[in-house]
Amino acid sequence: MVLTLYKLDASPPVRAVYMTIEILNIPDVQYVDTNLFKGEHLTEQFLQINPQHTIPTLKDDDFIVWDSHAICGYLATKYGKDDSFYPTDLKKRAIIEQRLHFDSGILFPTIRGTLEPILFFGNKNVKEEDVKKINSAYALIEKFFNSQWIAGNEITIADICCVSSISTLNEIIPIDRNLYPNLQAWLDRFSGEDFYKKGNEPGLLQLSELLKSKLAS
Ligand SMILES: N[C@@H](CCC(=O)N[C@@H](CS)C(=O)NCC(=O)O)C(=O)O
């Protein structure tokens, strides 16, 4: 059985999958660079694999799935020693799904809407409307916390998917600790974790440096 992940290290949803792979200790994943800046996601070969032309995309033998949330759920279910990382309990699972949809529907579109004009179309600043969207996303998620992790007392795929996005937004508009103390405390909780250091920080740094260079050029 061979797992292949089509990826670009700087991509937030790819980093969510990296962290999931680290947490689950999945060995022998093959990584295939798919450079969006060179249009490698639009080749006939990649479109055969994923007609939506997004990364991350996972191939597990002849089974293919894309979207980080679906991939993390698949890997957690297949490789988790127990179900704590993606609980099957009805209500725990429902809260996790809500956080994942928040990531898909609010956090990631905010990142994409803010960064695409800068990284791909030559814009030289973060638009005021995007600053507002980012702060409004922070204000919403701040109210989600009633436990240590984002969907309960144990770390789940909801934390992993949301932190790849929130750590990215934090590079664009730093979180104001006074306004969003729960969010900042949650983000700080990851900094000592090996899976975060290996799975998120290198790609986050790449993206942050790319952003700075585009804004300065
Ligand atoms: N909801 C998707 C978003 C995936 C996505 O849009 N990835 C970006 C890179 S960060 C991409 O592949 N963009 C190329 C395209 O949409 O053509 C996920 O969580 O995987």
Question: Which SSEs are present, and which pair or pack?
Answer:
Blueprint: E1 3-7, H1 12-24, E2 29-33, H2 44-49, E3 57-60, E4 63-66, H3 68-79, H4 90-119, H5 128-142, H6 157-172, H7 181-190, H8 194-199, H9 201-216
Helix pairs in contact: 1-3, 1-6, 4-5, 4-6, 6-9
The structure holds glutathione.
Outline the structure in words:
By secondary structure, the chain is of the alpha+beta class. The chain has 2 domains: 3-79, 3-Layer(aba) Sandwich (Glutaredoxin); 90-216, Glutathione S-transferase Yfyf (Class Pi), Chain A, domain 2 (Up-down Bundle). Helix content is 57%, strand content 8%. The protein is built from 9 helices and 4 strands, in the order βαβαββααααααα. It has helices spanning 12-24, 44-49, 68-79, 90-119, 128-142, 157-172, 181-190, 194-199, 201-216, and strands spanning 3-7, 29-33, 57-60, 63-66. A 4-stranded mixed beta sheet has the order 2-1-3-4, with helices on one face. α1 (12-24) links the parallel β1 and β2 (29-33). α1 packs parallel to α3 (68-79) and α1 packs antiparallel against α6 (157-172). It is globular, with a radius of gyration of 17 Å. The structure holds glutathione.
